[in-house]
Amino acid sequence: MVEPTHVLSVEGDILRHCAFNIPAVAYTVGRKYWPILKPTYLELANDMQWKVRRTLAFSIHKLAAILGPEITEQDLLPVFVGFLRDLDEVRIGILQHLYDFMKVRALDKCILVVMTLFCFNYRVALLNKNACRTLLGNLADFLQSDNVRDWRFRHLFAQQLIPLCVLYDIEDVNEYISPIAMTLAIDRVAEVRRITFRLVTILLIFPSCLYCSTMVGMIFKCFYNAEKLAGKSFPITDNFSLDIVKSFAKSHRWSRRQTYAIYFLLLSQGKKALAAQ
């Protein structure tokens, strides 16, 4: 199987077993022998059987941890992006471990408070900042699904986006992640909207972690009087907080006004946690 020319002549079940054991083999032989395994891995990643590709998708984060950031960025990142555009049966593998693949950089104390408040852990960086940014333009692809009724796919996507916010600069977050959050916040399925509560709140609190503790206060003022802050400069690009007010607080639908109240409550909790530091 190490010879990529042999892959085409091997039965499907054997290919799936090989795909399953790739991380174990890489761990055993070490990253210095990755050039020997790489051709076989790429053949498996492009195999016609989606079950083979699915197996690799579910373990690519483990392989990335073994190989390190350099090899991951050079060899695994293109495979990861390819899986992102694959069948849903394959995409679910990388979506389920999106955060594990990208990991989180060392964070300052203020951000850790917010992350603890919303119940997720931070880890040492796996991909560097530039490599993480290359995935930003592809994240919105997860909003599209082969089965539009599969709301669990969008629910998992929202769940994975929450810790990913700290991987990017605030400008990147608000250019790419904030529009996705707004889309998920008005999803037709209640469970998707509920998990998005945490995501939107993180997006509102996150600027204060990067800039100053008064930022949350500015957001609160924006909730009360959007017009007065419309001309002010603060790091929530595209007037994300104003969009929240217009789409939820001033909505004719009671459910959206209720959502706004929940955002306000979660934001209050986040503000108190920051003030305690």
From TrEMBL:
Q: Name one GO cellular component term.
A: cytoplasm
SUPFAM superfamilies assigned? ARM repeat
- The stretches annotated as HEAT repeats are 37-75
Q: Which UniProt keywords apply?
A: Membrane, Repeat, Transmembrane, Transmembrane helix
Molecular function terms, GO-annotated: protein phosphatase regulator activity
Q: Does the keyword Protease apply?
A: no
Presence of the UniProt keyword Repeat in the record: yes
Q: Where are the transmembrane segments?
A: 197-220
In its UniProt entry, what is this protein called? PPP4R1
